[in-house]
Amino acid sequence: MSRQKKIPRDKTLDGTLTLLRSDGYEFIRKRCQQYGTDMFQTRLLGKKMICFGGEEAARCFYNPALFKRKGVLPHRIQASLFGVGGVQGLDGVDHWQRKHLFLSLMTPAKRQDILTLTAEEWQRAIQKWSKQETVILFEEAQELICRAMCAWVGVPLAEEEARARAFDFGAMVDAFGAVGPRHWCGRLARKRAEKWLASLIEEIRRGAVSVSKDCAAYHIAFYRENGHELPPRIAAVELINFIRPTVAMSYFITFAALALHAYPAYRERLQHDDDFLEFFVQELRRYYPFAPLLGARARHTVIWHGYRIPKGSMVLLDLYGTNHDPRIWKDPDVFRPERFQSWNESPYNFIPQGGGDFGNGHRCPGEWLTIEALRLAVRFLVREMTYTVPQQDLHVSLTRIPALPESKFLMKQVQPVRAGVTV
């Protein structure tokens, strides 16, 4: 029997402030490099955590027989980003049944409906931007996606409230890696959104609001679990789980504009090469920081590469570090879309929104939509509009979670190229 190895311990008493204010996305990667291993132990929020990264770590992490998600999410993250009682915190049959609801509403035909609505919002937005002196792309992208998704899920959205609702969905995401005002802003935003949508669920159930029987709002309102409809607040949480992650695509859209500005040579190829458009979008998701890490708890004692992970241990998987692992990606800190021409499509080495199996695991059911919507966004940025990029602070700090260019990407002199685009 091989001898068990001792998991290196981080020297810091508690790494929470270092994670949030100093190392950010590189917290796990830096320590793995320091200790010369793919695994170490630390404390975060006063609790013991085992951190690891890389393709083999992801393969282990996403084995449902070894790790579970239920009871893992800290309350502060549930209270802002995910909501209490949502699908992300379930396991086993409960998770599979709830996730099947999401997957059943993310068919190719339904995703095409979302893309059609999103394209209409892009066209509308460009016309509006052409009359503005300066456009803040990140904020505008949040609003246009929010409009499209609310229309698709069946949530009535008055013209005058669209921007405020988009801000609330965005604030939930912005609170994920924050302490202080940003975190509390996200918690308040979630309370407002849950109250608004729980009321809508109740109105749909009693027939006071009529929505299509094909829309997500209807399916969630009348979804039954263990023979009972979901409590209105939980139903609201799951309705938010359709809208919030798509609004979060505004980060990738902003990074897309940043990449087009930083690497202008790719613009010409993107004008006509749809295959390369796919590679460009995938490299956006790999290269730029989005989700930093994910957590799970060991169902029983796990032996991984000679290290012993005790039953009940909290484990954190390094998403950003895995997407920048030099054992997987040549020159990982270089933006190079061409690398995806030969990617092996492993569900464990490219995990910007998590990894593993779509059907049985916790991999984001909206990942397909993210890729398709980003392809659409890049097509609009490259083929359907012109704009100039004024002097601004485009620095992206890896200590800010979620990361974003300081200026949120400013554009001037926006003009449409033609009247519409086929999706």
UniProtKB/TrEMBL annotation:
Keyword set, alphabetical order: Heme, Iron, Metal-binding, Oxidoreductase
Cofactor(s) the protein requires to work: heme
SUPFAM superfamilies: Cytochrome P450
Keyword check for Transcription regulation: no
Iron found in the keyword field: yes
Binding site for heme: C364
Xref: Pfam families: p450
Coiled coil residues, start to end: none
Family annotation (InterPro entries): Cyt_P450, Cyt_P450_E_grp-I, Cyt_P450_sf, Cytochrome_P450_3A
GO function term, MF aspect, one: heme binding
Similarity comment: family membership: Belongs to the cytochrome P450 family.
Full protein name: Fatty-acid peroxygenase
